[in-house]
Amino acid sequence: MRIRLKSIAIICSATAVLFANDLSVTFxxxxxxxxxxxxxxxxxxxxxxxxxxxxTFSEKVSAHVYTTVNNxxxxxxxxxxxxxxxxxxxxxxxxxxxxxxxxxxxxxxxxTVGDIVYQYGRFNYYVYKRFxxxxxxxxxxxxxxxxxxxxxxxxxxxxxxDLDNSSGDIQGTTKFGIGEKHSLAAYYGIRxxxxxxxxxxxxxxxGAEYLGAFGDAFKLKLDFGLQNVxxxxxxxxxxxxxxxLLEPSFALGKFSVAATGxxxxxxxxxxxxxxxxxxxxxxxxxxxxxxGYTFNxxxxxxxxxxxxxxxxxxxxxxEFWIVPTLYVYPAKNVQWWIWGQMVNYFRNSHxxxxxxxxxxxxxxx
Length: 365
What we know:
By secondary structure, the chain is mainly beta. It has a domain at 299-365. It has two helices and 20 strands. It has helices at 2-20, 198-201; strands at 24-37, 43-56, 61-70, 96-106, 109-122, 132-148, 152-161, 167-178, 182-193, 202-214, 218-228, 240-252, 255-265, 285-294, 299-302, 305-309, 318-322, 325-331, 334-346, 354-364. It is globular, with a radius of gyration of 23 Å. The two termini are 33 Å apart. The relative contact order is 0.10.
């Protein structure tokens, strides 16, 4: 009881301070949780919650606090949304501090100081929707400055990484507005050790993203990524990986079609699917297409049809998926997905198809 009374007192005191200083506090969040059955007697549960709080002190000054609940913080570290292999007994996850910053907006640009997160080239494709292909999600504590307008906008950042006590990064973005329905963005950066040479201690990334809308029916997203990474010694060449991502979508009345094509070009064979370091996805190439039909504002259906090439240079590890899905939208920003899946393996062993079923809830606010 003493702890509860103390907590209530703290909350009341904080509320009084907020009103006394006329602060504005808002919350934003993303919640994604699912349950999966593999029809072989095993079940999985995957969870991600990203919660942010913004305290606005004036028109120019605000502060942000971020927290995360994620299967990657579980004891086994397994599982991701959607349809990962999170262990059900580990789904009661702890809330982790995910960063804090203050932002100052002025006529000369916007300054951010504190914990900064960036990732570029994110997938629209539902399985990899939390991943990206130009650069993974990276965390840095430093300074970010952004300046520009709707035509040209640039952000530059310098900070200390969360890798070790000798690594920092410098990265930036430049975005170009091309009319009302088209845009082009360039991303670039280095991340490396201050105690090692560039050849053996620093990774470099660069990429570009095009977004376009052609009328009201057709949209296109096109990404290119390049990663030139550190070598084992100065005498060795630095390996390079390139990635291509094409994501068109078409909607006409109640009918729609979404598609994704992804290809990783890895001439030096440095990406490992057992622990993918450079894309965090478990395909070096895949193609997905989903025709869909919307019945009303609350219910729609889709039929994802997919081919996955786990390793491009291996001929017998491809997979064919069919994933019929029912989408339910009880309210704005609230989704419930109910799906089944058949996986057919193209392998020399002639492995029998695998079947799965699952339920996923997604809430944003």
